[in-house]
Design goal:
Layout (H helix, E strand, L loop, with lengths): L33 H14 L3 H83 L23 H43 L14 H34 L4 H9 L19 H156 L34 H13 L6 H13 L2
Helix pairs in contact: 1-4, 1-5, 1-6, 2-3, 2-4, 2-6, 3-6, 4-6, 6-8
Length: about 500
């Protein structure tokens, strides 16, 4: 309705009142009979029943005003809680990433140490394989003994014990890592549940582009209430105009009372005084306005009802939005409880992480480093053992060579001594033949003595023997000579090659 009806409330102001619809197609010149006035009065009185809609409209506006306040509180509260949730989730994610960083650092270093350990162990195994494949020359072993190799002369239990120790260390690390993985899985499950719950929180968009609809809805409700009140006021004015017209018409009051059972009285005064007299011209003008307004009563009533229905619909929208805010508030409250629980559990996750890191620093890392150093030390020792054996073969060959050279020198010296002894013996015999008959024997006790015999022979390292053990001493000397074996040439050459390769 473009403009609400404004029927006159008194005869003196009839000329200044506007009609319910100035453009209505009404025949203002048709005379209004008493039955017409009574019908208009009955219709106007019935239209005032729309006052219940105004009461309902007032209740709606009051309720909407309360919901508007609750909307402001819930919107601010939900926005604040969402900010808190975001901050808490960022903090939890930071802790989770920190656990990954610690694990990644330890795992990278662990893999590197394992690689170094495997490299060291492989090198040691290669060296031990050389020892297994290097036989002891048979001439160095006692007769009738089984073939031995360099590996038979080492204590392999040290390798086995260290290997078992390192395997146990790695097992302890894997146990600590498994405990950390379990903790991470539980942490991830808790975070996933949180994110899932957060995603399921009813979202009430409150942004610059999507503000809360309630202020706008409340504004529309107030507008509808105001328009309905103005429309109802026009109905009241029309009713008062009907009463005035009846009271200025002979028999009008009685006819209206007979039709409605109530005496027609103005709406604002139940004990109204008799109406002031008006001229016939004023009366006709009043009846003309009344006739025009009467045509708009149904439209005004419909408008009031439509506005009442629209207000109920708008209130339902307000209720729906508030319900959404309440649901969001309840869900966010549950999220905060979940975050509190997860935050409490984070302490145990951090304890597990610290325990894993401490186990790495205090057990796994030092033991692996020690194992690598021990593998390298053992490898170096066994490589030196292999090299020493090669150098032993070279030394045996050198000793044999020097022994043979000394023996040749001794044999040459012995031949020279034997020659000199024979020459001395012949010279003495010649002297005895030539001068022996002329010299008495007592002139020099050694005149007839044979020449002294000198011998070159090996000296035993065994302490001097008692009388009667010379034969045993000679046997010992022979044994010592035989203790320097004669190695084959190719054996010595291979040994020299190994020595040169490792120099």
């Amino acid at each position: 309705m473009a403009s609400p009806p404004s029927p006159a409330s008194s005869a003196s102001s009839v000329g200044s009142r506007r009609s319910l619809d100035a453009d209505a197609d009404v025949d203002a010149d048709r005379p209004q009979t008493l039955p017409d006035l009574v019908n208009h009065f009955v219709a106007s009185k019935r239209s005032l029943n729309t006052q219940t809609i105004l009461w309902r409209a007032n209740d709606i506006v009051t309720s909407a005003r309360e919901l508007l306040e609750e909307n402001a509180i819930l919107s601010a509260k939900n926005a604040s809680i969402r900010n808190i949730v975001d901050e808490q989730m960022d903090a939890l994610e930071a802790v989770r990433r920190g656990i990954d960083v610690i694990e990644a650092d330890v795992q990278n270093e662990f893999k590197q140490l394992l690689h170094d350990l495997d490299t060291s162990f492989s090198g040691l195994q290669s060296t031990l394989a050389v020892l297994r494949d290097t036989p002891i020359e048979s001439v160095l072993q006692p007769p009738n003994t089984s073939q031995k190799h360099l590996f038979d002369f080492i204590d392999s239990s040290t390798v086995t014990n260290l290997k078992d120790s390192l395997r146990a260390c790695i097992d302890r690390y894997n146990e600590a890592r498994t405990a950390l993985d379990d903790s991470k899985d539980n942490f991830d499950t808790a975070l996933d549940n949180l994110y899932s719950s957060i995603q399921n929180v009813p979202l009430t968009p409150l942004t610059t582009s999507h503000p809360s609809p309630i202020p706008s809805l409340y504004h529309h409700l107030e507008g509808h209430a105001k328009e309905a009140a103005q429309a109802f006021q026009s109905l009241v004015q029309h009713y008062d105009l009907c009463v005035t017209a009846l009271r200025h018409t002979e028999g009008g009051a009685a006819a209206a009372t007979k039709a409605t059972g109530d005496e027609p009285v103005p709406s604002g005064d139940q004990h109204a005084p008799p109406p002031e007299p008006i001229s016939e011209e004023e009366r006709q003008e009043m009846l003309s306005v009344l006739a025009k307004d009467a045509l708009e009563v149904d439209d005004v009533v419909s408008e009031i009802r439509e506005r009442g229905s629209e207000m109920s619909f708008l209130l339902s929208q307000v209720d729906n939005h508030i319900t959404q805010l309440r649901n969001e508030d309840s869900a966010l409250g549950s999220i905060l409880k979940m975050i509190t629980q997860v935050t409490a559990e984070v302490k145990s996750h951090m304890v597990t992480t610290r325990s894993f890191h401490a186990h790495w620093l205090e057990d796994t890392h030092p033991n692996l480093l020690s194992g690598i150093e021990e593998w390298e030390s053992q490898r170096d020792f066994y490589e030196r053992f292999d090299l020493a054996y090669a150098e032993l073969l070279v030394e045996i060959s050198s000793r044999r060579r020097r022994h043979d050279k000394a023996k040749r020198k001794a044999e040459e010296a012995q031949k020279e001594l034997d020659r000199l002894h024979a020459e001395d013996e012949r010279a003495r015999e010649q002297f005895a033949l030539t001068q022996g008959d002329f010299l008495p024997l007592d002139i020099w006790p050694g005149l007839r003595d044979p020449p002294r015999r000198y011998e070159v022979r090996p000296v035993s390292r065994i302490p001097e023997q008692e009388d009667g053990e010379d034969q045993r001493a000679e046997e010992d000397v022979e044994a010592e000579v035989r203790s320097i074996p004669q190695l084959e040439r190719n054996v010595v050459e291979r040994a020299l090659t190994r020595v040169k390769q490792r120099m």
